[in-house]
Specification:
12 strands; Kunitz_inhibitor_STI-like_sf; Water-Soluble Chlorophyll Protein; two-stranded antiparallel sheet; 3 helices; Trefoil (Acidic Fibroblast Growth Factor, subunit A); single chain; endopeptidase inhibitor activity
């Protein structure tokens, strides 16, 4: 009975990923479920993505912003399937996933999760912000990675639209939103945190500290 159940799960996983491409990191290697990556804009000289306040009051939940300084790699994230797909260690395009910040340093809003979500509150704008505090199975916490033009270049999509950017409240740093305006689409690449080049320049803890400097109050 257990063998039959396992075979059934493996077949379901094969169906879920059939005809879909493995997501590749900036070096062309498959993106692994649960591993840490920086999400960095593919067509920009700025840095990576970090949590940052987008409102004065209420302060939480935090939004997500691109750092303006190119030496700031961002804050690591990991990707996971929801629902869980048994039998695969890799992330595939056009497949429902969660995105979660991974950091030991988190000075505020600790009552909320680090999962990404689309703001679906009653006060949300026409182009709602991408925020922190999602729930794994909630529709607004589900994302997909889709291929885009360029080697190992992707875009993120949600049920509310494609992830794009608008000038944010902190020196105009790009703030992530869900939009149906193609001109605002954010094209990204995934840089593995333990990449040899990263190891040569900094430790993970220092990387996290650099990324979190984008907290305007930190």
């Amino acid at each position: 009975m257990k063998t039959f159940f396992l075979v059934t799960l493996l077949l379901a996983a094969a169906v879920c990923t059939h005809g879909r491409e493995q997501v590749k990191d900036s070096n062309g290697n498959p993106v692994k479920r649960g591993a840490k990556y920086f999400i960095q804009p593919a067509k920009s000289n700025g840095g990576g993505l970090v949590p940052a306040a987008i409102n004065i009051l209420p302060f939480c939940p935090l939004g997500i912003t691109q750092t303006l300084l190119p030496y700031q790699p961002g804050l690591p994230v990991s990707f996971g399937y929801e629902p869980v797909i048994v039998g695969t260690d890799y992330i595939y395009t056009s497949t429902t996933i969660n995105i979660e910040f991974r950091s030991e340093i988190w000075p505020v809003c600790n009552e909320l999760s680090k999962l990404w979500a689309v703001d679906v509150s009653s006060s949300a704008a026409k182009e709602p912000a991408i925020i922190i505090g999602g729930e794994r199975t909630a529709p607004n916490s589900l994302f997909k990675i889709e291929e885009a033009t360029g080697a190992h270049t992707y875009k993120l999509t949600t049920s509310s639209g494609t992830v794009g950017t608008i000038p944010g409240p902190w020196l105009g740093a790009p703030q992530l939103i869900a939009t149906n305006d193609d001109a605002k689409t954010l094209f990204v690449k995934f840089v593995k945190v333990d990449d040899d080049a990263t190891k040569a320049t900094t430790s993970t803890s220092r990387v996290e500290k650099l990324g979190l400097r984008m907290f305007p109050f930190y």
